[in-house]
Design goal:
Blueprint: H1 9-16, H2 38-49, E1 55-62, E2 79-87, E3 97-101, H3 111-116, H4 118-126, E4 129-133, H5 157-170, E5 188-193, H6 195-206, E6 213-217, E7 224-226, H7 232-237, H8 242-257, H9 262-271, H10 279-286, H11 305-314, H12 328-337, H13 344-365, H14 374-378, H15 393-405, E8 406-408, H16 428-431, H17 433-439, H18 448-451, E9 463-468, E10 494-497, H19 519-545
Parallel strand pairs: 3-4, 3-5, 5-6, 6-9, 7-8, 9-10
Antiparallel strand pairs: 1-2, 2-4
Signal peptide: 1-21
InterPro entries: AB_hydrolase_fold, Peptidase_S28
Family: Belongs to the peptidase S28 family.
Length: 555
Amino acid sequence: MAIKGLTTYAAAALLAGQAAALHPWGPWLGFQSPGVTRSARDGVVAARSGGSPIKAYNLSVPVDHFHNESQYEPHSDDFFHLRYWLDTTHYREGGPVIVLHSGEFTGEGRLPFLEHGIVPVLAEATGGIGLVLEHRYYGTSYPVPNTTVENLRFLTTEQALADTAYFAQHVQFPGLEHLNLTAPGTPYILYGGSYAGAFVALTRKVYPDVYWGAISSSGVTAAVDEFWQYFEAARRFAPGDCSPTLQKLTHIIDSMLFDDDLARADEIKDLFGLKELYHDEFASVLSGGISGLQNTNWDPEEDFAEYGTYCATITSDALLFAGTAYLRPAVQRIVSFAGYGAESESLTARMLNYIGYVKNGVRQDKKNCEGKSLRECYSARFAEDSTDLSASGQRSWLYQTCRQWGYFVTGAGVPSDQLPMVSRALTYDYATIRCRNQLNITTPPDVDSINKLGGFNFSYPRVALIDGAQDPWRAATPHAIGLPDRESTTTEPFMLIDWGVHHWDENGLKDKVEGLPPKQVVEAQQKEVEFVKAWLKEFEREQKRGLGKQKVGEL
């Protein structure tokens, strides 16, 4: 879920009031999702236009796998179409099935990874079938006619995991109907990135006799309610002077917002041209730029260049926006008021550039907000909503975060002894407002329903945990800074991609380019091939020994 470009301030503001998703509409999941890459968006276009050589199919799966659980009442005996895309180009008899799970986005958006990403890398090396499997309640894989709150009751991780197991146990691949390629007789290997990364790890643990192994890339195995840690990666790894500058500018802004003299709050908001907004709405707008770290990528076609532009803008001591020059005296006053008189010259210039950057973004957003007030355009309190399936992907992820996963990004949650990267006016109450307003969910998400399977301590045989060192979502994984390091083994690979961000090992290039992918990504993908091959040899040995099945776990 990714915010792109200056014209995303409205999206950022809206989504910041939501879950910090790993999603195309944001981390605010608003903000980002695990980020929908440019090639992923192109994959949607290609699939819809017929330009993709990959074909889509459906498997009929139960709407309700758990008739003994009251949360799904009234129960359903119906089936629905779970969509998948198939590529048998590299298949050799006896090869595995490589399943890339789409996670919280339409499966069409994952087709580039099936065409020239991690799937063909693994499939070619192992003689495997490659496919993308869609998640219930996304794309066309809806078990219900609309997404009213009642109809969303079947959208739980438990039900979706059961879909994935059912698929491997019942699918017959078109063109290969003469072969029994179901699990457990055929080794199934899962791959997922971000939410999908956590999802495949959980699938392997809950259904170990169905899925032989899983690669969890940037997998957020820890569900976190208030996720202030999202911006810790930017605080530590933002280029140059970006992080300390933003912390100081944010502190100056908060000094005005929280002063006893209410006029000061109006003054700072007015400098940005956002006086009409409430404090939390204003804070969410300002948080848009720094959230771009998640969408930086080694591939020039995928890289979110605006993130670098943002940091370069707010750290420049030269005035970059002529239209803000007249504000210099006012900005000098507030810089001194906040206690930064000794740095007045530099911070005044940087604040003026910050103001100019935001104003420019807001100005570009106006065409998307025609006929709306500033608050209607930017506030999550006015977020438009629809239960129609054509517009329900965002609603589905919102429901998942409100019910189970959390990831509500705030500035208020940052420890008091640390300067935040985003305003403390960005509160949990505002971040969760869409849960209440659109879904009537008034209780915190049941993160224990996810974390009981491991959370930060997640570990399971033949589950690889791979993360980017600079990924904002690293803070919700077993690689989170501050957790004990682990030995990486063939059975449980534990890899941190240097300088990497969000599931950098998932995408690839259509054509060869000298110097790309970077060495650390090439090495990560090579290691994935090596340990998957080792897992498959283990599968062959077990098949020969005729060992009994492992017991299915419980979610």
